[in-house]
Amino acid sequence: MMIQRFFHRYGFGIQSPWAYSLVRNVLFEPLRYYAFDELQAKHPQCSKTERKRNEQLFRIVNHFKPQKIEIVGNTVASTRDYLSFQTSSANSQLSAFNTQLFYYICPSAPISSIPKTLSDGMLLVIDDICETNKAAWKQLTANAQVTAIFDMQYRGLLCCDTKRIRQTYLL
Length: 171
Description:
By secondary structure, the protein is α/β, with parallel strands linked by helices. The protein is built from six helices and six strands.
C-alpha cells in the first residue's frame, strides 16, 4: 500500500492525463509559487508541516480558480490567508475542470455542517481524513456525484464532474 502511494504521488500508474497533471503540477509541485514568500513573511509562526499544507491549498485554489470559497469549521488565520490570496488575472489559465464552488472542510468541522448534496463543478478539500473527519470522508466519498477522489492520507480532494468516470487515487 505504501509503495503504491509513493509511486502514485509522482504520477506513476495514473492513466488519466487530467489526474496526472493535477498530481504532478498541483498537489505535489516542488517549486515555489510567487506568493509563498509574502505569505510566509506574514505568518512566520507556522510550522514547516503547516506551511507545506497551506502551500498545497494555495496551489489547488490557484489551479482551479473557483468562483466561491467556503470554509467549513474553524481554521487558523494562516490557512484562511493561503486560501483567499488573490491571484492575478494575467496569469489566469483555464482549468479542465469548471469549478463553481470550493469547500475547505477543517478538522474541527461538525459533520452536520458538511454539505449533504453535491453538484457538478464542486471541489471539496477535507483535512484530517484519517482521524477527526473520518466519518465525513466516508460519507462524501460514498456520494455518487463525486467522480475523482484523491486520498493523500492527511487530506482528501473530491471533484464533482459528471463528464468524468469515477476514480480513486491513493497518493
